[in-house]
Hints:
Elements: H1 3-7, H2 19-22, H3 24-44, H4 54-118, H5 122-139, H6 141-159, H7 163-184, H8 193-202, H9 204-222, H10 224-230, H11 233-258, H12 273-290, H13 300-322, H14 334-354, H15 360-373, H16 383-388, H17 400-433, E1 440-441, E2 447-448, H18 451-467, H19 471-505, H20 513-537, H21 552-580, H22 586-590, H23 594-609, H24 616-637, H25 646-667, H26 672-683, H27 690-694, H28 698-708, H29 713-725
Helix pairs in contact: 6-7, 6-9, 7-8, 7-9, 9-11, 12-14, 13-14, 13-15, 15-17, 17-18, 17-19, 18-19, 18-20, 19-20, 19-21, 20-21, 21-23, 21-24, 23-25, 25-26
Protein name: Exocyst complex component 3-like 1
Organism: Paramormyrops kingsleyae
Amino acid sequence: MSVDGVNNGNGNSEDALPIVEVWPELERAEQLARGAALKWASGVFSRPEQLEKLGQYRMRERQRTESIHSRLKSMVQTYLEGIDRGLKQLREARLELKEVSCSLAEVKAEGFQNAEGTETLAVLRGASISHAQLLAAVSNLPRLHSVRGVVLETERLVESRRLLEAHTHLMELERWQDEVLWQLGVGGAALDPRDEELVRTYFSDVGRLVEALARELWAVVGSGLALARQNPTSFVSAVRIVEREEALDRALLEERRGGGCTRPLPPGRPRCWRKRFFQVMDEMVSSRFCSVSYLHTRGSGLANHLSGLQHSIMGDVATVQHLLEQCVPPHYRLLRVYVATVHRCLQTHLAQVSSWDLERGEIFAVLNWVLHVYGSHDMLGHPDVVSEMDPLELGPLISPETLEKLQSKYVYSIRNSVADWMNKALEVELTDWQRDQEPDVDHEGFYHTSLPTIIAQMLQENAQVALMISESLRDQTIHMGLYELESFLNRFREALVEFGKEHRKDHGRNPFYLHYLLATISNCIVLKGSTESLQQQCTACPTGCFSWPPTGPLVALDRAVKKACRLVMDRLLLELQPLLLRLLSGSWLTHGEVTPLLCRVLERHCELYGHVRPPCRQRLQEECQRLVVVEYVRALMQRRLVCRGAGERHQVAERIVQDAQLLRDVFQDMVSMWVSICICVCYCPFKCPCVSIFVSSEEHVSVLLDVRGDVPRELRGVVLDMLEQSTPILPPGYRPVFSDILVPPRSMSFCLPTARCS
């Protein structure tokens, strides 16, 4: 078969030539091929020596072209043969379609002819349907006559809670109703709506009986826990009825799903009573929480309510597991359903309780019940419950946000209570300061009051109670307590300041002023130990608005201790002031009773300092020693005594040596070094290297030289130059003394000149 023959079915090849014009892509392909060949030839024959191989290239290309042409011809021939076979099959199919069309036309004509004969059968069909309906009515007359009696009997059985028998009669009535409706519509004919309405009206009591039976049924299910403990027979009957109804619903749905039945579903079907069974169980559990109100659970009532919930729930769990589960099919998994329902109801109930305005004890009861009681072996962790389901599947009883809110409310309520107790403790402390007797002494001999015990015990007890809930709540409680302690200590320091001001106004008002100051210092040391202990108990930074670690309480304690020590030193200075005014004066040099009196005052104070807890006891002694040194040197700087000769200088030196010995007995060598400085200055300043170490001011050196009274003006410059050139090495822990002492200005002699002063 040729190419031209395919292009023209009549064998005319003239119509095949214009095909080249219809396909412009062929011309473009030829142009591209020529261009590619030209490009290839220009690249191959670019040099003269390559022209010698022109014959070889021509032969190779000719062979390649012939090979391509032969393959193209073979492919086109195969393609054309396939087209020829397709055309033949299309011709055969067209002939067969014509034959089928003719046969259908003949059948249609015969059908029209036979339709006229079937019209005569319509009367017979109507008579047959009427006969079938009359037959159904006659066959159902005994049943229809007994419907009223069955209805009354069923009502009696329902009222007496003989539910299983009542359900049997009810199923029989429903079956009669369905059969009557089916027989009236026999043969697939459409049921007359009037007939259907008549049957529905006659069996109207069936729907009423279904509702009555359902009410009694759900009443039995709702009281299943109580019935299970007494007589579970009615509960078992209710479960059997539920399973019967579930089986009927499933059978009716499968018939219609499989297409084997065209009847519509009976009214009220499917009833889904198994689903309703679990809904009633849910309502039964929920009813236990609906009667609880805010007023009925105030104070300890909430804890009693939660305890009652625990006992009632676990009692119900035992009843469900050992009694009710024996009355239902295994696939009900009634214990699992009951626990999940209780958990869901508790979530709602506790969310409502958490929204109330709870007090501290009530919040503690809720948190303890949620975090410890509910998940313990006495409730959700009970082996019977764990064997049925994993408690983790239920989720948290209250949300993390609600838990955090309850903990914050608990800490806030404690904060108010702690603040009130601290204020009361401060009032008691201020009252103790005014007593006319010494503070109490503990077994170690230290002064104290009840303040640190009250504060520490209160904070520690709150932390221990919070730890019963969680470590996080314990940390928040401790953190809150420390910040309240800081605020309390600031008020405590202000009270100390006012205490000191009142004493300065009236020195004889409180004879035990100093004793209570010393007791206050010991109290602060005890509070510091309690504060550090509380800080060590915290495991992490508590969440909230506070920063961590809270260094404020320790800083406030240190400030209060410093203020109390300052007031103690002020009291000592007040008692020493009359004696200090006589130091290094003429009466001091002549009589010598000033220093022994001063030492007796110091001994009495140092003895009282022994009632202070270390390390503040050492601190007070050091401050006392420094005060004596500073005042002794200040008396020397005031030029009360100026030596007028070697004998007087020797007498002053001897008196200072005696004072040094007396002070050494009091302070045990702590002041002897400072007194030795004065001796050296008074006796031999040029041989005492201590002068250049401890005296760095020209004014102080000038006063010391003035007190000696034998240093000429020429040597003063030499001494000052020596001080400037020396680079002394200060002892460790040295605190400057002369820098705290101001040199009083020289007194000018008063005159009434008759002439102009130069």
